[in-house]
Amino acid sequence: MIAAAPTIGQRIDAQYGALSRQEQRAADFILDHLGDLAVYNATELAKLSGVSKATVSRLFRRLGFSDSAEVREHARSLRSQGAPLGGIGAAAGTPSALAAHAVQENENLQKLLAGLDDGRLDAAARLIAGAGEVVLIGLRNSYPLALHLRQQLAQARDRVRLAPVPGQSLGEDIAALGSRDVVVLVGFRRRPSGFGLIMQTLRERGVPVILISDSSARRHAEGAAYWLECPVDSVSAFDSYAAAMSLVNLLASGVLGVDVRDGRTRIASITGMYDALDELETPW
Description:
The protein is α/β, with parallel strands linked by helices. Helices cover 51% and strands 8% of the residues. The chain folds into 2 domains: 8-81, Winged helix-like DNA-binding domain superfamily/Winged helix DNA-binding domain (Arc Repressor Mutant, subunit A, Orthogonal Bundle); 103-277, Glucose-6-phosphate isomerase like protein, domain 1 (Rossmann fold, 3-Layer(aba) Sandwich). The chain is built from 12 helices and 5 strands.
């Protein structure tokens, strides 16, 4: 396998000690503003960092880039892959930054809802409700979402489990699955390299898959029974999963709504078990 080329941040870290004071000043600005790097040219970077344009151009060459256009393309590529970009500082909590964050979160939510108005959410909920067994798979950054969805679905129906169990492999968890079961596969960007093979294996075994992911998983969507696309765009360094959590809420609620009477009976039984085991804190 060909190793991925180092990011601009990694290149700066590797050469920082050998840079001149002025180059270090420009490098510091770049590291603090990686999220904006895709829109700055060399002149703008020089002005903002307080160095000459020649210093910025020299720094880019030291880092292995031919010019600022190549740097901008590199930054766009990193962001599209979900790589964390952007500095961490007090500005993240300023009113303007918080307002921009709110705008982006709302845009993500609106995009999510617009993509669900064709009935696919209800169809996916019915598929989950009627399955023999439901297996939730979420690897790397998708794991917390799969875990939360499993917790919600377990309130609505039985035979819901998370795979793989931490520290274990996936094979034994999907070996017995068939066409009457359902796998909910959560796969947001920066997925592990074997993600496509998981999709292929489930498809070959005839196991219906509900794929929850951002647009970067489009090439995997063809093998899914339903693809629930969820944007994770963010104005900050990291992807945002706020819309994804809303999707989890909607999907689990949809499953519960397929058979409300059975769902209420199950919830009452679970609540009784909580009380019997004294598992939850009382609200007063």
